[in-house]
């Protein structure tokens, strides 16, 4: 039996509502929970499946106002010396020469961290004395905070010699961190926050520069090694 269409009428139904409804709020919440938390997790975790990454940080470096200076005045072992360590100065006897010292730490960009150290030493000499070589040791406090919290005592060692005596020596250098292990990202790493020089010791061996540098560079390298050294440019 065939069927015939006898009447048709199209129906148009429209539903209207305000934008500020619970349904709109629900959609916005779902959108935020879908995209924002993964982005925050990726940012805080330094990325997903990260194998290797690098970052730069300006350390907080403070001069400790500890110095040890030795100048050779001849080829037969004659020398003059001075330090900020009273016990070492007492061991020098007639070889002690107390210099005029000027120290200034500069913060070029006003960020609260010292960018440059200006140090000037003027050593008084006798009329017959001339300087052929100079050794200078300076100590610093070195701190990192951005990724790892590291506090350590570091040093700068400067050495220069010449076959002819000199009256002035200019040094320009940068402190750099030498690292052979990953730093811990939790807690305080202060294993090397000890004095570079054994202050208060009455023995001359405690102020031997070769021993100080050897112990400084070793720093328990069987397990980990972390120290700061200085690159210098010398002009005399």
From TrEMBL:
GO CC, one annotated term: ciliary transition zone
Keyword terms of this UniProt record: Cell membrane, Cell projection, Cilium, Cilium biogenesis/degradation, Glycoprotein, Membrane, Transmembrane, Transmembrane helix
Subcellular location: Cell projection, Cilium membrane
Main subcellular location: membrane
InterPro entries from the UniProt entry: TMEM231
Membrane-crossing residue ranges in chain numbering: 23-43
Membrane topology: Multi-pass membrane protein
Signal peptide residue numbers: none
GO BP of this protein: cilium assembly; regulation of protein localization
Superkingdom of source: Eukaryota
Family of the protein in this entry: Belongs to the TMEM231 family.
PANTHER family: CHST5 PROTEIN, TRANSMEMBRANE PROTEIN 231
Function statement: Transmembrane component of the tectonic-like complex, a complex localized at the transition zone of primary cilia and acting as a barrier that prevents diffusion of transmembrane proteins between the cilia and plasma membranes. Required for ciliogenesis and sonic hedgehog/SHH signaling.
Name of the protein: Transmembrane protein 231
Organism: Astyanax mexicanus (Blind cave fish)
């Amino acid at each position: 039996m065939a069927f015939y269409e006898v009447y048709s009428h199209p129906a148009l139904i429209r539903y209207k509502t305000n934008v500020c409804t619970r349904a709109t709020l629900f959609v916005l919440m779902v959108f935020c929970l879908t995209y924002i938390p993964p982005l925050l997790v990726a940012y805080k975790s330094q990325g997903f499946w990260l194998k290797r990454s690098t970052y730069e940080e300006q350390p907080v470096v403070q001069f400790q106002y500890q110095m040890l200076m030795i100048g050779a005045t001849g080829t037969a072992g004659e020398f003059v010396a001075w330090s900020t360590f009273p016990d070492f100065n007492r061991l020098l006897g007639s070889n002690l020469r107390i210099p005029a010292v000027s120290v200034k730490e500069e913060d070029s960009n006003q960020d609260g961290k010292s960018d440059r150290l200006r140090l000037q030493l003027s050593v008084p000499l006798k009329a017959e004395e001339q300087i052929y070589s100079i050794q200078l040791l300076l100590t610093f406090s070195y701190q990192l905070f951005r990724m790892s919290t590291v506090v350590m005592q570091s040093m700068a060692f400067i050495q220069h010699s010449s076959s002819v005596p000199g009256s002035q020596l200019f040094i320009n250098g940068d402190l750099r961190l030498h690292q052979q292990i990953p730093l811990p990202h939790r807690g305080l790493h202060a294993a090397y926050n000890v004095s570079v020089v054994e202050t208060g010791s009455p023995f001359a061996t405690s102020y031997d520069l070769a021993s100080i540098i050897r112990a400084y560079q070793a720093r328990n390298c069987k397990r980990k090694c972390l120290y700061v050294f200085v690159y210098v440019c010398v002009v005399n």
